[in-house]
Amino acid sequence: MTTRATVIGVGHYLPDRIVENHEFADGLDGVIDGTIKLDTSDDWIRSRSGIERRHFAAAGQTTSDLAVKACEAALADAGLVADDIDAIVLATSTADLTFPSAATMVQDKLGMTQGFAFDVQAVCAGFVYALTNANALIVSGQAKRVLVIGAETFSRIMDWTDRGTCVLFGDGAGALVLEAQEGSGTNADRGILASDLNSDGRYRDILYVDGGTSTGQTGFLRMEGREVFRHAVEKLASTANTSLAKAEMTAEQIDWVVPHQANIRIIAGTAKKLGLPMDRVVTTVQDHGNTSAASIPLALSVGKARGQIKPGDVVVTEAIGGGLAWGSVLLRW
Ligand code: ACO
Question: Is 164 in the pocket of ligand 1 (CB under 6 A)?
């Protein structure tokens, strides 16, 4: 018998405020003091990224606030309450405060006084890192049920004068409940079958936030989009293939690719490299923009709600982000 970390619940939350692409060009109020008005267009944003709209958190609404709502939905989906959970692993680069972790804030807001909680910071790859860590906790017997969350408020680290970045990101949260279940040890089991994590700090300058503890300022996201793009397709297809190889599976066996939702051209390029048609890819980038670590759990939750992802389906998630950090998780839903 082999212990498998199996998905038994999923949920998500998106803040109420929806911003359509044209609002950046027409004049956008209520996000910062004053009006955001950029030399951009719906056509540019849509054709370069596939993004049509995104959600922004309300003033005072924090990453842990979004995460709690996603957790409540995931717990309801699993038919569980917070006391049934042993651990919380929360992927974010936009925690409410430098410390304590957003995960402990979620723990408190859920009324959970047992177990342990911590954040994982691997930017847009954060959710695959969090899932891999949660899997290790379960497989090693340290936790039986784990809430794995991706939650972000990237609107708080945007330079609203930089049209090359601020139109691309959004806020949101998604959560999974993982439970230890006994499997046969073959790739026919439900649960996490394989994962692959990578990073290469030589590329830290192409995607970073220019603030933090060393500057005393939160800072703004800076990105050389073309350079990140250049790395993305090759590294994403490669990490997905590595996870498949570890589980002795091939791309034809994948029912759903659930990629990090940064850019539809990266998503399509990766699917093509894997030899898979777009009708086997869950896409939410058009409605959410890039929500960094939240994008994969959001897409898993939306994909299930749409009736795309069903029990027994083989799902591969893959993501790349600042670091560079990238990776994939292969699981049977
Ligand atoms: N509206 C209009 N024009 C714009 C805008 C805008 N919002 N933004 C940039 N432009 C202009 C540029 O100034 C440039 O003009 P120029 O040629 O006169 O200099 C032109 O459009 C082309 O700019 P590029 O940056 O070369 O455009 P590109 O086709 O590469 O698309 C994009 C840019 C969408 C950022 C793309 O490079 C991309 O998606 N990169 C990857 C981003 C990504 O995947 N990030 C993942 C992780 S994110 C994380 O970890 C936090």
Answer: yes
